Amino acid sequence: MDGLKRRLNESVQLKLSFTLSLAILVMAIVAGVFSFLAAFDEAHELQDDVLRQVAQLIDRQRLSPAPPTTDVRPKDVDEESRVIVQRLDEANPSPVGVDAGGTLSLPTTLADGLHTLEVGGESFRVLVKTTAAGERIAVAQEAGFRNEIARDGALRTVMPFLILVPVLLLIVADLVRKMFRPIAALSKEIDQRAEQELHPVDDRHLPVEVRPFAVAINRLLARIGQSMESQRRFVADAAHELRSPLTALSLQAERLAEAEMSGLARERLTLLRQGIERGRSLLDQLLTLAKAQSATDSPKSPVSVQSIYRRVLEDLMPLAEAKHIDIGIEGTQDAEVWASELDMIAVVKNLVDNAIRYTPEGGRVDLSVGMSEGKTELRVQDSGPGIPLAERDRVFDPFYRTLGSEQIGSGLGLSIVQTIAHRIGAEIHLDFSDQEKQTGLDVTILFPAITPVCADQKQSGLAIPYPDVRKGRPISSE
Questions:
Q1: Which of 283, 351, 359, 372 could form a disulfide with 363 if both were Cys (CB 3.0 to 4.6 A apart)?
Q2: Contacts of 156 (CB under 8 A, 6+ apart)
């Protein structure tokens, strides 16, 4: 009971349905009882009118009830419609019982009018009347059959209530549910939005009572959008402003490296140049993240995944060669995804850059594209340490880096990948590339498929030839 009260207090829909249903039930019970009693009394009145009509007919026709006989009553007589007519004369007792066609044993002192009497263990409704000839007659009918007929008639009157009330309760519940459907749709639409989707809620289809809430939500979304835009603009402006000083520092450090200096000074200069390079890399990542978060333009045409792979490998090949990493593209299949070229380059470049940095020397990094359950599948696998299961929910947070990592980085790569993936409707899955040893990282990005193409389709213009790059050497993919 306490649980029901709590739910009623928390849910307007449940409270409204319960209140309306309770009101309908109470009104139906009251109306049903009133209709039953009224129909029951009316049926008795009609039956009493039948007795009056029989007595009036006998009086007008000057008929006299026949004396009872010992003949057995015919079998086809309907007891429910049987009406007993007899003289009210105690000196002429009936030789047979009433069920055999005899008369009732009635006292002669009964006054004219209607009476309900117990005769022979049965209840009878009796009308006593004095005719114009001065003869007193009694017209009787068994009360049990009368009551049964009256109850049947009253139940037939109440039957529509018994049928319509459950139907009405279902209709009310359905109407209430439909009335609250726009609110449920609104909450679902807001809940399914991505972080960057702050466009106003369409309140045209909402009830007038709910529109103030939608207007308030729109104002809140507008304020949040302005706040986020201010933050992104600040980050982008700060990154732009810091690039020039860092570039100047980098040039001065290069010039300083050309001068003669001691070994200790050159060692410290090297550390300084590494710090400057980390700062420039961090600024580039911040600018990329700001652009990914603020981009709203939809792509105008699909882009080939293999072409993105080639461009990224051309940029990152020196980094892979420095660590003697075997990097290349697996398979001959190509596919197109509906995304901008800059977004795809940012996604693949960050994934491959992380794979190269976290893969030990002499390791392996593989890029591939395929189809899985009607979606285009981009996969980047490496032979590095991988990401533990406990940290996979946090690696997409800005500036978060895996514990114990000795690699230099900003911790923004996977955050940029996730931001772009969410904006273009892609899904990201992390797994171990070596399931037995629980090592290596396998990053899979699923895009809605457009048109898969293969190397055999090069003549159709859909596929683009590409080299399989292994340790810097173009090799035939076959």
A1: 359
A2: 39
The amino acid sitting at 291 is K
pLDDT, mean of residues 309-332: 88
Q: Please tell me the distance from the alpha carbon of residue 219 to that of residue 214, in angstroms, as a whole number.
A: 9
Tens of pLDDT, residue by residue over 144-197, are 777 887 888 888 888 887 888 888 888 888 888 888 888 888 888 888 877 667
Q: Residue 401: phi, psi to the nearest 5?
A: -130, 150
The one-letter code for the residue type at 94 is S
Q: Is the dihedral of CA 311, 312, 318, 323 positive or negative?
A: negative
User: Which token pair is 134?
Assistant: 């001065």
> Residues 259-284: pLDDT tens digits?
888 888 888 888 888 788 777 777 77
Which residues on neighbouring strands pair with residue 337, listed in sequence order?
303
Residue 471, pLDDT > 60, answer no
3-state secondary structure at position 335: strand
Q: What is the bridge-based pairing of β-strands 451-453 and 334-337?
A: antiparallel
E strand or H helix that includes residue 116: strand 113-119
pTM strictly above 0.85: no
Q: Measure the CA–CA gap between 16 and 422, rounded to whole angstroms.
A: 39
HSE at residue 12, side-chain half, CA atoms within 13 A, is 6
8 Å CB contact between 416 and 349: no
Distance between CA atoms of residues 121 and 97, nearest Å: 12
